Amino acid sequence: MSNAEGSSSTPIITPNSDDVSTQPSQPTMDASVDVDDGLEKECEVILGGKYRSEVWRHFTQIKLGGVVVKAKCKYCNKLLKAEFRNGTTALKDHKLNCKRKPGALDTRQKVLLSNFLNENGKRSLESYSFDHEFARRQLANMIILHEYPLSIVEHVGFRRFVQSLQPLFKVVSRNTIKKDIFIIYEIEKKKTMQLLEDNQSRVAVTTDMWTSNQKRGFMVVTAHYIDDTWTLQSSVIRFVYVPCPHTSQVLCDALLETFASWNIDRKLATLTVDNCSSNDAMIPLLLEKLDPDSLLCGGRLFHMRCAAHILNLIVKDGLEVIKEAISLIRESVVYWTATPKREEKFEESAKQLKLSYGKKLSLDCSTRWNSTFLMLQSAIPLKDVFSRLKILHRRPNTKVYQKKVIGTWLRRSVKSYKSFMM
How far, in Å, CA of 11 to CA of 346, rounded? Predict the structure, then answer.
């Protein structure tokens, strides 16, 4: 049907009338389903029927042979699948995001924000328009930065919070966000590899083994180099699982694979490791497989021992003098920090004696050379609390605090220890 000016018309059915009115056809957006013009002409356009969902107020049903096959949006004329087995989820999503629906927010419209955080994390005054890909990328960066579990995207509370901020943002599944994180990793890896390749200086490498809560061994490899602006840069280039046994050959193969994959095997300056026997045996194996002409002084400066580990060994030898007293203090700290109930009782006793309990008891770690000092620093001012609890709760591990000589000895030792550290 055409008017005097030759423009075409499309039959439109309104929900308030059974009459078919003729209105000029509007340009449609990209349809989710490709429909031939001939097929659409054969379809019977009706409204109502057995479909009772509220969403049908915004769509026109298109039937073929008495069966609903498609739904046409009343605002943008977009065609969507509407077969009975498909449900109405897609229709509801389109109703929510339709840009031509009366009262809908045009996400392309820019808004001037004074507290907008750019990609560098700095506040700036600039125009903002919602970008779904940018928001999804920031979600992945948030999980990486704060080490959130991937399952956070499936938490009901998180999804509700995101929808309250931006209803147009579709929260992805944990598998999808995992893929996004790996994409970010590959991008950052390429950037770091390019920096290492373009850099003119050599690369100093540090490596160490780490054991997880599941008793699995991991190797971390960090590259240190000075850039063109004479700024020291450090980048973790690998964090890899190393199967047992952690022999010198296994560690050597893992490091060689890292050097080759990052193309730094001919730019190495030094390799810093701790003083365990497997590392001492690993260094000759590495030197055999690396080109000696590419190393400083033919590889004589390649092996560097960890200064912190050496200092830890020196301090541990010095603490052998008061080993017995430290052992008793450690047992006391372990006992009174074992359960929340014991911690509350210890804090209550400290308040009764009018002692400050701002710095709680801390247990030392055998591989951290300064943790023993921190344990003594927190325990000795509270020695009267241990003595009081010794009377109320007969525990043999607090007898050290009843000996005035050992207490004086420890205070002097801690004072000397503190002077040595500083």
Answer: 82
Helical segments of 27-71, H only: 37-42
* pTM score of the predicted model: 0.55
Three-state DSSP class for 354?
coil
Residues 6+ apart with CB under 8 A from 234: 222, 223, 224
As to burial, measured by CB atoms within 10 angstroms (0-12 exposed, 13-18 middle, 19+ buried), residue 396 is exposed
- Phi and psi at 220, nearest 5°, equal -110, 135
pLDDT along the chain (422 residues), means of 10: 40 39 38 39 41 79 82 88 79 81 57 56 64 90 93 93 89 93 93 90 91 85 92 91 89 93 92 89 92 88 88 84 85 87 87 82 78 86 84 55 49 57 53
Sequence-distant (6+) residues with CB within 8 A of 192 are: 235, 237
Query: What is residue 84's predicted lDDT score, i.e. its pLDDT?
Result: 74
Single-letter amino acid, residue 408: T
SS3 at position 213: coil
- Tell the burial category of 61 from Cβ atoms under 10 Å away from its Cβ (0-12, 13-18, 19+): buried
Beta-bridge mates of residue 116: 124
| pLDDT digit string, tens, across residues 368-379 | 778 888 888 888
Q: List all residues 6 or more positions away from 12 whose beta carbon is below 8 Å from its beta carbon.
A: 20, 21, 22, 23, 60
Cβ contact 200:265 at 8 Å: no
